[in-house]
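## Example pair
The file below holds two records. Each record gives the amino-acid sequence first, followed by its structure token line.
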Amino acid sequence: MTTSAFLAVAILHLMAAISPGPAVLMAARIGVTEGLKTGFSVAFGIGMGAVFWAAAALFGLALLFEYAPVLLTLFKVAGGIFLIYMAYKLWKTADEPLPLESKNKVPRSLRSGFLLGLLTQLTNPKPAILFAAIFVGTVPESTGIGVYVALLTVVFLNETIWNTMVARIFSLNVTRTVYISLKGLIDRVFGGLLAVLGVKIAAT
């Protein structure tokens, strides 16, 4: 695999990671409500989920989806249901105050944040198709394991660093102050976007 092809894959994936989707929305939501530390754990989970889908594309799961489309449909429906459920939870609690200063509030554990990020990424099977499209024609069959590891590392770093940056931006005091004052509206917007994405994933 040439250096230029490797860089092309890295840049294409970075652009895909930056584009708004369930993962970016979740990183923003956790950043604004729970801060950077938990936001990073979510971003780490998102990065690991992306590595799973990238590895699946590299090692043939995307081809399996092509020949057994019912599996892709099942993944999409399950993913859509998960995102719609998260949207429902946001709508249901939209008008509840956010106890940012409460000493009795139990923060989400780093493990819980990681699992949330991982599930958010894994319930969207479209990255497998995206990675297959990116890898076809750029990753030769003769590519060695070292290049595969390097590609998966780039995917992990792109997703984790970008979503950590999103969480950081939304964890800033000024952002959180705006969020507190407009919590009901913002939660409904977040919830609505997650629901739309859930329906889109399940239906397309």
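Second record, same layout:
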Amino acid sequence: MDRFDERILRELKSNGKLSNVELANRIGLSPSATLRRVQELERLGVLKGYRAVLDLNKLGIGFIAYVAIGLSNHSKKSQQGFEDHIMGAVEVTECLNVTGENEYLLRVETSDLAAYKRFHSDVLGEIPQVNAITTMVVMDTPKDER
């Protein structure tokens, strides 16, 4: 990777909807050279995809929490069982396997606190591998570059 590749990544991270011509103008290369570089970054897996940034409030998401999950058993089978349950939970938008006191950190998005309470008891509370649940409510998001 050279400085042009780095600039391409920086620009696309900021706005993945840039046209190839606009991207080329911003980084100082021809559109054809820029396109070849973007395609190579995609082929190498450096660029894994493009996404839309959504306004969660307009979509009815008024409650966001990070939830630390401790498992009762630390085996691979237990982890896989937990992950299988979580994959079907639409409220979970991110599931991270982490080190430390807990095995998982979840990002959970619901319409409100009552909906989170239902998710907490009806989904997390029913997963047999779960031993501990610690909820951290998001009060504000001053920076989000996901």
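Notes on the second record: The chain has a mean pLDDT of 95. The chain has five helices and four strands.
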